[in-house]
């Protein structure tokens, strides 16, 4: 926001000088050009910052899944949240269209799987976790479980569970 | 191991990438130059005058950042003429041709290669030699970077990296990453699902409230 105000101030001063230059004082051209350079520079910095934020938010979708933790959402502006939702929708549409009737969840199986069930240890208290056949498992710190891969992958990537190799 | 965040790379050759953060940092580096004609009312901004009404007399020496030099440079050269920073001049060029491996490129301006490529944009009679020197320096240093990045596993690499400029450091990191991935694969850990580094970083940082 500060940058926008600065840009506006510079632009207004530039306008004043342009009108002065048109009335015959040609030696002010350098000043105008200089200010134009500064404006372009500010614009470039702001754009690069915003674009970098977008790239990180896109990465967040792949890391965290569809729902962002509230601490992160707090730091995003309304437009960025809107962009994130649109990106989620596009990704979901694409995943549905690829691979048969039900679609293919591209966010699963980032590394080629070796087996259907994996051994995991819980790093943090998470609460209850339900698997497909209806049993709920209480995830407390340092408890070990033998669980199907597709259920745990999200949690492992988020750091709640830890994958153990025998 | 698979990262989802891909930042914009710096540009190669004569053009910079508009959105690349590395390029923006690189173009902040200063160049010596000379004012070709009197520049009215700019003295205060460029640090040489006291009041805002002063103008810079013709021929005075200035240090300006690269982005400003590129903007104010004109083929008719009415405003600014740029000189080469000393590292690209004759004396240093002979040092580089003698042995490029001993030069501490990080201290000389951490963007030696990128900045040098941008300098070729300004008309300068020494451009072919500058280009040649940069190329030769890179070739001679490359082998050492490659060797050190591929053989330093699980060690503190800060001593190796300290004399490299930014481009070389990026290469070094790429080499290290390849080495670490390979070692993981050898140990059989390639199929282990790991916590993504973004999540790790967010977990460690404490978010503070920003004003405004």
From TrEMBL, chain A:
Keywords annotated in UniProt: Chromosome, DNA replication, Nucleus
Cell compartments where the protein resides: Chromosome; Nucleus
Keyword Ribonucleoprotein: no
Domain GINS subunit: from-to ranges: 18-98
Pfam families for the chain: PSF1_C, Sld5
GO biological processes: DNA strand elongation involved in mitotic DNA replication
Family the UniProt entry places it in: Belongs to the GINS1/PSF1 family.
Name the UniProt record assigns to this protein: DNA replication complex GINS protein PSF1
Organism: Nycticryphes semicollaris
UniProtKB/TrEMBL annotation, chain B:
Sorted UniProt keywords: DNA replication, Nucleus
Any one biological process term the GO annotation gives: mitotic DNA replication initiation
Keyword flag Nucleus: yes
Main location: nucleus
Residue stretches making up the DNA replication complex GINS protein PSF3 N-terminal domain: 20-72
Subcellular location: Nucleus
Protein name, entry field: DNA replication complex GINS protein PSF3
Organism: Nycticryphes semicollaris
